[in-house]
Amino acid sequence: MLKMALCAYYAVWGLLLEVAVAFGPVPRITWEHKEVQLIHFNESKVSNYSTLLLSEDKNVLYVGAREVIFALNAVNIAEKQHELHWKVTEDKRTKCAVKGKSEQTECRNYVRVLQQLNDTFLYVCGTNAFQPTCDYLNLISFELGGKNEDGKGRCPFDPAQSYTSVMVDEELYSGTSYNFLGSEPIISRHSHQSPLRTEYAIPWLNEPNFVFADVIRADPNSADGEDDKIYFFFTEVSVEYEFVGKLMIPRIARVCKRDQGGLRTLQKKWTSFLKARLICTIPDKNLIFNVINDVFILKSPTLKEPVIYGVFTPQLNNVGLSAVCAYNLSTVEEVFSKGKYMQSATVEQSHTKWVRYNGEIPNPRPGACINNEARASNYMSSLNLPDKTLQFVKDHPLMDDSVTPMGDRPRLVKRDVKYTQIVVDRVRVLNGTIYDVMFIGTDRGALHKAISYENGMHIIEETQLFPNFEPVQTLVLSSKTGRRYLFAGSNSGVVQSPVAFCDKYTTCVDCVLARDPYCAWKPLEASCIDIFKEGEMERSWIQNIGGDASSCSDKVRENPLQHTFKHGSTAELKCSQKSNLAQVVWKFKDDVLRVESPKYRLLEKALLIFNLSEGDSGVYQCLSEEKVKNKKFSQVLAKHVLELKKMQHTTVGPTVTAAPTEGNSDVPKVSAVSTEGSTAHISTTHMVPVTTARILSKPIGPVLTSVASSTELFNSIPDAVPEKTMFLKSNDNFLLMFLFLFFFILFLCLLSYNCYKGYLPGQCLKFRSVMLLGKKKTKSDFSDCEQSVKETLVEQGSVSHQSGEQPKPAHDTGYETEPDCGNSQLQAGDSQASREARDKPFDVKCELKFRNNSASFCDKYLQRHPFWMIPSLSYATGDLKLELLKQSVL
Ligand SMILES: *[C@@H]1O[C@H](CO)[C@@H](O)[C@H](O)[C@H]1NC(C)=O
Ligand SMILES: *[C@@H]1O[C@H](CO)[C@@H](O)[C@H](O)[C@H]1NC(C)=O
Ligand SMILES: *[C@@H]1O[C@H](CO)[C@@H](O)[C@H](O)[C@H]1NC(C)=O
Ligand SMILES: *[C@@H]1O[C@H](CO)[C@@H](O)[C@H](O)[C@H]1NC(C)=O
Ligand SMILES: *[C@@H]1O[C@H](CO)[C@@H](O)[C@H](O)[C@H]1NC(C)=O
Ligand SMILES: *[C@@H]1O[C@H](CO)[C@@H](O)[C@H](O)[C@H]1NC(C)=O
Predict the structure, then answer these.
(1) Whose CA is nearest to atom 5 of ligand 4?
(2) Which of 34, 35, 36, 42 to mutate to test the pocket of ligand 1 (most atoms within 8 A of CB)?
(3) What is the CATH classification number for the domain harbouring 655?
(4) Confidence (pLDDT) at 745
(5) Is residue 40 in contact with ligand 1, taking CB distance under 6 Å?
(6) What's the gap between Cα 77 and its chain centre?
(7) 391, 415, 439 — which closes off a domain?
(8) Nearest alpha carbon, ligand 4 atom 6
(9) How many domains does the chain have?
(10) Residues 711 and 764 in one domain
(11) If pLDDT is split at 50, 70 and 90, which confidence band does 763 have?
(12) Ligand 1 atom having least distance to the Cα of 466
């Protein structure tokens, strides 16, 4: 019984979990590529526009593409100012091809580093046919200095490999790989005085994938004399967790700017390199985002401290989940300056595990920057540091404490999308509140714009930046007041987009419901404006980020569209509705129309009325109803009047009176406000300009004929798949699948319970007796197993609470030697299934928790469950697993 309950619990738990995540916030508006006017830059025969550098002072956007560097006008990137070809010599290309690389693609020069050195020079590096080269680009003549420095350690050899770089005080810091094969990762500083690099050792960097680097300056007024720090972000293969496959871990690493390396130990190596795990999880839903794709560090004078925004995905991401986590800098600094270190503990059978180091920590603190306190103890530079400190940091670059996100959970979790890039803008809206607007690029060429509001996220809009759905590879924000733009780079070109499309909102209600910090309604002009483009802000403007449109009073003209029709024909009444959060409601003679009836058919942008008769003449209104925080705002989008054509007119095909305007989808929305449960004034009687109506019938254009047969009708009905959902995949199918799955498992559980009780005849009884015979002990066995699991977990998570104690080697309780509390007692019928399940890397939990026959349900459940929740079960850290275990033992 307990087992059954567990199984059911498990199934329900999994179900709830998926449903909860299935409906992340939906972007309110989806702008298709052709709906928005974006500025493009691309040149024929040039590809891979993947490196962007914005110079805000000069208003220039530098673009590094394949074998070309461009300088574009940052106000209008279609205006090219300069271009420089930087080609690979024929000789080098041949040599590269000889080494087995593709001459047409890989053996080219991909510009990877583009950094501002000083006013007149850019520092640029390219892969140069697997011989990375760096040079100085003179911005006045727009020519290379011809120095052709060796770019090893600053730029990858292979264009497909990850890289990141940042220029700090004319010194280049980069994270990349150091050799042809790309097997030697490195974080280095290129400097004439003191070049430094990481130690080539697995504990320092283990197959990292670099995504971002930036400097955070120390407060010059602070008394502790701290150093500026350079932070690197990457995903690497875990050394600290035991796992069947390669477990990825997102990291933050940092070095100090004034680091000079050690004198004997760590000569020309970082003495301040420390790294920690970045956590981006939803513990109560058991979701772990362990691959970091991009980072943006928000620094603003209005912020007390910088905030680090990261976009994450899970390692196995077959449903396309993404998350945004934000970290405050003090949490990061706390981990590095006060946290515990990790230490590798060699265990018997040459397993290396990492556990918390609880021993004595040398003084000065290993990895700390030289500050006033260190100077007071006569450590003036890293060259003076004692060997003890240096040896310690060499062996312990990894912190045991992790960096937890603000609020202990992601800011945003979204399904059916893979986020690749992020930038964040800090905006002060009309009433003085400050919002951090996140712009997030996807792997399908779209951009999501989101704000956090009262603990929830609101995705204001989704914009298709690239017509060919290519991944957004680089995203840059220009946040100069009055001139805010986004620049996005991809393989095929660069796109410039405004930060908002306020003028697309044509009514006050629409403008306010958008909840866009950049937009406000200007009643005098009756237009939705970008508040940062106007000279000064005015009190009369209407803006409410909460979406309360009560103060709107849209005035509208009365101008309904007239249609005449014949008996038995079909009418198509157009009404287009942009908001994905609104519902379309049709009213006929002021009553809500029951569109489910077979007489009607609701399409994405129209209503069809079949078999028209006298009773159908009258006024039809199309309303958009949008609910924001229990307040419903409705606007009349369109109004149609249908009239019966007199029967005596028997001439074939009288034309429709109202001119049909095909393709006029940009119908101005004019509205009337009505609010429920609020003080807003109600003006439902306002009339509307007209949308189009088209009468569907025999295919002679806008002509009325007699009864259309149903087959003709369906041939001429436009495809009902809504255009709007092009990027927003429907989740309904998933829900159905989950429900089906749930009932299926319930059925299995019931079946076996009945079988177990002996209620079912024949085969089942045989099976049952086999099962019962095969099992001797029940309860005690189960708890033994549980006990050992707990032990294992404690060690794996390296939660050693005895303070001041040296970490003792843990006895090896890896998966191989785990006590068998799994499927071994299963009979032939189930062995296939269980073997399959065991072959998968994620069957651990199941084996641990379910004994005997209920294990087979669980196996089946897992097999039928190709979802992320399963991996997350097993690669959870010790703490998480324990938590889970507690839950399920209840
Ligand atoms: C290239 O630029 C043109 C406009 O100059 C634009 O219409 C086209 O969509 C761009 N192509 C891509 C792939 O971005
Ligand atoms: C900029 O850097 C280059 C290369 O180091 C140097 O030659 C030049 O004098 C510098 N220019 C200025 C204005 O500092
Ligand atoms: C360069 O762009 C092409 C498409 O234009 C793409 O197939 C290729 O993977 C890109 N190469 C790199 C290294 O990004
Ligand atoms: C930083 O984040 C932590 C965790 O959410 C929080 O406790 C702390 O107050 C934050 N610090 C600041 C200065 O915002
Ligand atoms: C500004 O408006 C928002 C949204 O309605 C509200 O939550 C916030 O309290 C307002 N701030 C001030 C200072 O009035
Ligand atoms: C059309 O409507 C009339 C009544 O208005 C009804 O008698 C007739 O059966 C309907 N025809 C079809 C095909 O539904």
Answers:
(1) 406
(2) 42
(3) 2.60.40.10
(4) 72
(5) yes
(6) 27
(7) 415
(8) 406
(9) 5
(10) no
(11) low
(12) 14
160: CA distance to ligand 3 center in Å? 8
Based on the fold, state whether residues 298 and 166 are members of the same structural domain. Answer: yes
Ligand 4 atom with least separation from CA of 304: 13
In angstroms, how far is CA 110 from the centroid of its own chain? Answer: 27
Whether residues 214 and 263 fall in one domain: yes
Which pairs count as long-range contacts for 699-705, CB under 8 Å and 24+ apart, including other chains? 700/653, 702/655, 702/656, 702/660, 703/653, 703/654, 703/655, 703/656, 704/564, 704/565, 704/566, 704/569, 704/645, 704/653, 704/654, 704/655, 704/656, 705/566, 705/569, 705/652, 705/653
Residue 427 CA to its chain's centroid (Å): 21
Q: Which atom of ligand 1 is nearest to the CA of 495?
A: 14
| Claim to verify: residue 222 and residue 332 sit in the same structural domain | yes
Name the DSSP class of 683.
-
Q: Decide if pLDDT at 557 tops 90.
A: no
What pLDDT score was predicted for residue 353? 78
pLDDT score, position 596: 85
Q: Please indicate, yes or no, if residue 79 is contained in any of the structural domains.
A: no
DSSP state of 256: E
Q: Which residues line ligand 4 (CB under 6 A)?
A: 304-305, 328, 330-331, 406-407
Atom of ligand 4 nearest to the CA of 407: 5
Interval between CA 48 and ligand 3 midpoint (Å): 6
pLDDT digit string, tens, across residues 162-198: 999 999 999 999 999 999 999 999 999 999 888 999 9
Q: Which atom of ligand 5 lies nearest, measured to the CA of 454?
A: 7
Q: Whose CA is nearest to atom 14 of ligand 5?
A: 431
- Over the stretch 815-829, which tens digit does the pLDDT of each residue have? 333 333 333 333 333
| 719 within domain boundaries | yes
Q: What distances in angstroms separate CA 216 from CA 6, 205, 307, 746, one per listed residue? A: 50, 22, 11, 55
Of the listed ranges 27-36, 211-220, 557-566, the least confidently predicted one is: 557-566
**pLDDT, position 591:** 87
318 shares a domain with 268: yes
With cut-offs at 50, 70 and 90, classify the pLDDT of residue 338: very high
Where in the sequence is the domain holding 756, given as residue range(s)? 733-771
Ligand 6 mutation target, pool 608, 609, 613, 614, most atoms within 8 A of CB: 613
- Whether 807 and 752 map to the same domain: the answer is no
Domain assignment present for 96: no
Domain membership of residue 50 (yes or no) is no
Query: Which ligand approaches the C-alpha of residue 708 most closely?
Result: 6
Q: Which of 219, 328, 332 to mutate to test the pocket of ligand 4 (most atoms within 8 A of CB)?
A: 328
The residues with which 40 forms a beta bridge, in sequence order, are 495
Q: What is the pLDDT of residues 818-864, one digit of tens each?
A: 333 333 333 333 444 444 433 333 333 333 333 333 333 334 433 44
My answer on whether 375 and 459 are in the same domain is no
pTM over 0.85: no
Query: 196 and 303 share a domain?
Result: yes
Residue type, 608: L
Atom 5 in ligand 1: residue holding the nearest Cα: 40
Q: How far is the CA of 106 from the centre of ligand 6 (A)?
A: 68
Tens of pLDDT, residue by residue over 459-482, are 999 999 999 999 999 999 998 877
CB within 6 Å of ligand 5 — which residues?
431-433, 544-546
Tokens of 69: 């560097």
Place of tokens 């920590």: 361
Which residue type, as a one-letter code, is found at position 323?
A
